[in-house]
Amino acid sequence: MKLPGNRRVRILSRVYRSLLICLVFMALVIIAGTVYGKFFRAVHQQHEQPVNPGNTGNGQIFTGIGQIRVSTGDPQPGTVILFVSFIYDPEDKAFSEELVLRTRDFREIISNYIGSFSTTELQQISEDTHKSELLRRFNAVLRLGKIETLYFIDFMIV
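^ thats the sequence. predicted structure below, dont judge the formating
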């Protein structure tokens, strides 16, 4: 079954118009979404408050140590889940590089320190005592700068 020439042209013309309308509609949706996204992000960033522990000034939070799981020194060992962070000055490139290079040392310090306690001892000692001892040990291995304060994002004894 063959369609006459004029009818076939009209059908193809309608298909092309429909496709063109769909294309224009999709382009408008993409453009509108992009404009809305740019505007919404700019407004959102103006009202967003930084989620930093304490007053960081120009510092950034170093989270390169990551989450650590350490077994306690009990005969039936428990597990301590610890995530340590601290604030450092990213403008001090030498110190920033030293922090990255010392990440393995920091993890080992945490493992040795936490692993030397039983679960009961860890619960009896205050979190501030653990922070100050880890801070002292971290600063003992650093040569190009010092860490002011440690923060425990996670400190769970399981």
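The beta strands are 60-62, 67-71, 79-88, 150-157.
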